[in-house]
Amino acid sequence: MDEVFGKRRAEDELDDPRALALPGWETLDKLATGLVQRSHGDFGGWGDMVRFAPCTAARIEEVSGVRRTDFDRKRWTWDLCRQTTTAPGGLVDKGTKGKRRRTVPLIPEIRELVAWRLDVIDQDPMARLFTGPRGERITTAALRDATHWDAVVVALGYEHLRRHDLRRTGLTWMADAGVPLHVLRKIAGHGSLATTQRYPHPDRPSIELAGEALGAHLSRPREAPGPEVVRRSPPAATCDSCANPASETAKAPPAWTFVQSAGLRHHCRDDRI
Question: What is the DSSP letter of 97?
Fold first, then answer.
């Protein structure tokens, strides 16, 4: 049964990657704290990575690949240009997925974290911002095993949360914050706009507000619309006024009159346009 449910959930995720996004910063902080507490020696680097990933909508491989030189502390942006991945010979650093370099904003919630780590790591421009407890490069599997990820997320009630869902969390938060679709696509590094379009769905409060707005609109008293004249260029002449521009009746331009429940009609014609 669990296997069937897991397969169904995976299929649903393809259509709605927002499904398991964490609800907010408080939940993210609880997750990061719980992972650190379950790790050997309470290694705080795991928690920093887990906070950093959703706040930048980055993949764990991209977080692992970030270097000192990639940050602009004046503008508080991250030049995301590399990732650390597994290869036949071990871990390697290479360009991002699809070779799409992108600029990611650093929100106030993680600026202090980034500033502190920049101050304590090696001054070499290529020094890594995040490493394991022995200075090693980090993978998503290492993060899972070292923090007892599966047990922690079950305890928090997010038993199906995976490391990649941290990225989905960040994109969901940005979409709900009103980040325009074309900007969200740039930050995410999506090759296809259709991928980004799966994130900007209205959340429950937005749906409730839409219902309230509609109710307020329908409850307003309305006045019956009166006749309204809209000037248009005359169609083919069908009366003395239209046929004879020199006549007295043709001094005023022909009128198109809005007739309630009937549409637009010429004053001398009975056919709608």
Answer: G
- State residue 260 phi and psi, 5-degree precision: -55, 135
DSSP designation for 67? B
pLDDT of residue 89: 80
Instruction: Tell me what pLDDT residue 35 has.
Output: 98
| Predicted pLDDT at 79 | 95
Q: What is the DSSP letter of 83?
A: E
Q: How far is residue 52's CA from residue 60's CA, in Å, rounded to a whole number? A: 9
Could you say which residues of the chain have pLDDT below 50?
A: 1-13, 236-238, 241-243, 245-273
pLDDT at 244: 52
For residues 194 and 210, the answer to whether their CB atoms sit within 8 Å is: no
What is the rounded CA–CA span in Å between residue 93 and residue 147? 23
What is the enclosing helix (H) or strand (E) of 92?
strand 90-94
Residue 12 CA, chain-centre distance (Å), reads 18
The CA-atom distances, in angstroms, between 54 and each of 84, 160, 170, 188 are 18, 17, 4, 11
Q: What is the pLDDT of residue 93?
A: 85
pLDDT for res 227: 60
> Residue 78 forms beta bridges with which residues?
71, 104
Residue 136, token pair as written in the block: 């090693």
Segments in 66-192 forming alpha helices (H): 108-120, 140-147, 149-155, 165-176, 181-188
CB atoms within 10 A of CB 272: 10
- The CA–CA distances, whole Å, from 127 to 33, 43, 61, 66, 138 equal 25, 19, 16, 9, 14
What integer pLDDT is reported at residue 92 of this predicted model? 86
Q: Which residue is associated with the tokens 């897991």? A: 6
DSSP 8-state assignment for residue 69: G
State both tokens at 46.
Answer: 């795991």
